[in-house]
Amino acid sequence: MVDADRRRLLVIARASIAQGLEYGHAAVLHPESESETLRAPGAAFVTLELYAQLRGCIGSLEASPHRSLAADVSDNAFAAAFRDPRFEPLHQAEFAALHISISVIGPRQAMACASEDELLAALCPGVDGLILEAGARRGTFLPSVWEQLPRAEDFLRHLKRKAGLSAQEWPENLRAWRYRTEYFGE
């Protein structure tokens, strides 16, 4: 992705949050005015930080054929600001100090690992995002989470907890996928 598209996505995210503060909904986009890259289907996570502390993070793991990357970023920026269940909705007083970052999600790749040791050996710390699924339980960590959890064992243990799984067990029905992101921020 070129720098102009990255900058445009950050503008879209901030505009969508501003629209949410003023009117209660995400920004309405005009797809014809966007680059071909931003009009194409795409998936992204939008992460909000306030004074270096997480303030919201919502995203899509898979591109929808009916939703552009620009629309995905707009909707997820609004959701991160106002619908992340871990936080109160964003207040106008927080807007100016808000730092926005975006992770554009690449294709996911199944990881055929029969044990935790195999999965840990296959992971690329600092590079891979990871999705875990066992039955109805599912969770993901973006590659940026490696900054807080640089040891693969800690990364996996915390992700298992996030997915509602026991950190010490390896469920027989566990499935895993890795993915990469293009990460940028303000």
Tell me what you see in this structure.
The chain has 186 residues and is of the alpha+beta class. It is built from six helices and eight strands. Strands 2-1-3-8 form a four-stranded antiparallel sheet, with helices on one face. It has a four-stranded antiparallel sheet with strand order 4-7-5-6, with helices on one face. A hairpin with a 2-residue loop joins strand 5 and strand 6. The longest helix is centred in the N-terminal third of the chain and has 21 residues, at 3-23. It is globular. The two termini are 16 Å apart. The mean pLDDT is 95.
Structural class: alpha+beta
Mean pLDDT: 95
Major beta sheet summary: 4 strands, antiparallel
Determine Rg (CA atoms, Å). Answer: 17 Å
CATH architecture annotation of the largest domain: 2-Layer Sandwich
**What's the level 1 CATH class of the largest domain?**
Alpha Beta
Query: What is the name of the CATH topology of the largest domain?
Result: Glycoprotein, Type 4 Pilin
Beta percentage is 15-25%
Low-confidence stretches: none
Indicate the overall shape. Answer: globular
Number of domains: 2
Spatial arrangement of strands, main beta sheet: 2-1-3-8
- From the N-terminal CA to the C-terminal CA, the straight-line distance is 16 Å
Tally the helices: 6
Q: In percent, how helical is the residue content?
A: 25-40%
Tally of extended strands?
8
- CATH superfamily descriptor of the largest domain: Hypothetical protein ph0010, domain 1
Sketch the topology as an H/E string, one letter per element: HHEEHHEEHEEHEE
